[in-house]
């Protein structure tokens, strides 16, 4: 919980009463590897903050291939924010890549916090902006670089993930085959 509060306080000031309200609305859950935090075809029910573990955002393309397009690790928010706020059906899956421990907020509790704490929407707006900037920063180089450079960039941006998640997910994220990724890894050792 301490990491969660420290994270939020980077984006705005909260008094102890507001912090207590937020922490009382949070529920800690465990998500096992392979379980979904949110599923395509369903309305997202919660916003989470990862205390331990890694999740990925993925979807299936028109050929039925699974495409990983984002990873989120410890001490970051995870949600299908746009669909959560609008309460519309998600198109992505958010899946636990490792066993995870999260703090979660239901839609009702998230809205209650926003309706009670003056300035909460400003704080969450800054958090969302920060998350989007990180995503763009991590994805932008992947568009124009060769596969080896993309993998090296992945290692730079996600130094703690390469040994924690399956190579198939990394290959999908990089837009290459698992065989290509294995060759690249062998060549850079």
TrEMBL record:
Which Gene3D superfamilies did the record assign? Jelly Rolls
Q: Which organism is it from?
A: Chryseobacterium formosense
Recorded hits in InterPro entries, A to Z, give: cNMP-bd_dom (IPR000595), cNMP-bd_dom_sf (IPR018490), RmlC-like_jellyroll (IPR014710)
Q: Which residues form the Cyclic nucleotide-binding domain?
A: 30-113
Note the superkingdom of the native organism. Bacteria
Record's protein name? Cyclic nucleotide-binding protein
């Amino acid at each position: 919980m301490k990491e969660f509060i420290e994270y939020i306080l980077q984006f705005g000031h909260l008094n102890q009463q507001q912090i207590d309200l937020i922490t009382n609305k949070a529920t800690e859950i465990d998500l096992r590897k392979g379980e979904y935090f949110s599923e395509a075809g369903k309305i997202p029910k919660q916003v989470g903050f990862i205390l331990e573990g890694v999740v990925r955002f993925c979807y299936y393309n028109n050929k039925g291939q699974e495409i990983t397009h984002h990873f989120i690790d410890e001490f970051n928010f995870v949600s299908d924010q746009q669909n959560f706020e609008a309460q519309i059906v998600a198109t992505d899956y958010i899946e636990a890549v490792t066993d995870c421990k999260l703090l979660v907020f239901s839609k009702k509790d998230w809205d209650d916090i926003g309706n009670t704490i003056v300035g909460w929407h400003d704080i969450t707006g800054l958090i969302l902006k920060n998350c989007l900037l990180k995503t763009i920063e991590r994805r932008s180089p992947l568009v124009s670089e060769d596969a080896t450079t993309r993998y090296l960039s992945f290692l730079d941006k996600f130094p703690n993930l390469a040994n924690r998640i399956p190579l198939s997910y990394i290959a999908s994220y990089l837009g290459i085959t698992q065989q290509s990724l294995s060759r690249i890894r062998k060549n850079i050792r």
